[in-house]
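Researcher: Here's a chain I'd like modeled. Treat it as a single chain, no partners, no ligands.
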Amino acid sequence: MVSMMQDVVERGTATSVRAWGVRFPVGAKTGTTNDFKDAWFCGYTPQLEATVWVGYSRAEIPMESVHGIAVAGPAAQAV
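Model: Modeled as a single isolated chain. C-alpha cells:
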C-alpha cells in the first residue's frame, strides 16, 4: 500500500508535489467525485498527514470552470 501511494507522487496524479522540493518519502491519493462537484488530496510523510477538500459546502455545484480550469483532485492540490 505504501509503495502504491508513493507511486502517486513519483509517477501519478500528484507529481506536482515533487515541484515543491520535497526530498523525503511522501505518499498521496487524489480524487474527484462525479461531475467535478468535489475534489480532494490526501498526503502523508512519516511524520505528518494532511487532507484537503475543495468544493462548495452549501450546494453541489460542478467546478468545471474555476478560473478557467476544470478542478479535479490533482489540479486542486496544485492550487
